[in-house]
Amino acid sequence: MRIAVIGGTGPFGSALAARLHSAGDSVAIGSRDPERAAAAAAELGIEGGRNEAIVRGVDLAVLAVKAGAALETATTLPLESPLLSVASELGFPAGDPRSLAERVAELVQVPVAAGLHSLAAGKLADEPPDEDALVCGDDGDAKALALELAAKLVAGRAVDAGPLRSARALEAMTTVLIAVNRRYKAHVGLRVTGLA
């Protein structure tokens, strides 16, 4: 699979790109600053460039920028392929009940899936964590690509978590996991039990 990681110079984006590259995928990382992307990509042995350039000709683009930049960044991308939104707004914002992924979907002309919210960048840098990765979306093909990507990241399963509106719960789960990690000084993840 050919994958563009938008915001690939950040902790999660670079860890994701490294893991996918080691799994045999063709990966490019992007940044607003093409020189920064090229330098980070050179360290990983992959392609790097401006966000707008790396999304051309890929099978799946991953929006891995910080939550505060996700909406603005999404509007600048000349997307041709499905988009996987992995960012989470920490906390439970008042007013708009929609997830960040749902808001991104309203701004772009390609199908959007959401997922990987329970995976920590630090865990991706090591061996695949013994957890499951949850993905949701309304478009079957986009979700299938996102699930294929997710399966390469974890020792557990890539789990279909339903329609895109489920991203509301997945994104909120990030806040819960951070609170648990702080409370117990741990690095917890998620496992869904009872699946065949």
Architecture overview:
This protein has a single domain, classed as NAD(P)-binding Rossmann-like Domain (Rossmann fold). The chain is built from eight helices and eight strands. It is of the alpha/beta class and 196 residues long.
Short key terms for the protein model shown above:
alpha/beta; Rossmann fold; 196 residues; globular
How far do the termini sit from each other? 27 Å
Oligomeric state of the chains?
single chain
Classify the helix fraction into a percent range.
40-55%
What is the CATH superfamily?
A: NAD(P)-binding Rossmann-like Domain
Q: Give the overall pLDDT as a whole number.
A: 94
The domain tally reads: 1
Low-confidence stretches: none
CATH topology: Rossmann fold
Strand runs, count: 8
Structural class, judged by helices and strands?
alpha/beta
Relative strand content: 15-25%
Largest sheet geometry: 8 strands, mixed
What CATH first level would be assigned? Alpha Beta
- Form type: globular
The spatial strand order of the largest sheet comes to: 3-2-1-4-5-6-7-8
User: Which CATH architecture?
Assistant: 3-Layer(aba) Sandwich
The whole-angstrom Rg is 15 Å
User: What is the string of SSEs from the N terminus onward?
Assistant: EHEHEHEHEHEHEHEH
User: What is the number of helical segments per DSSP (H or I, 4+ residues)?
Assistant: 8
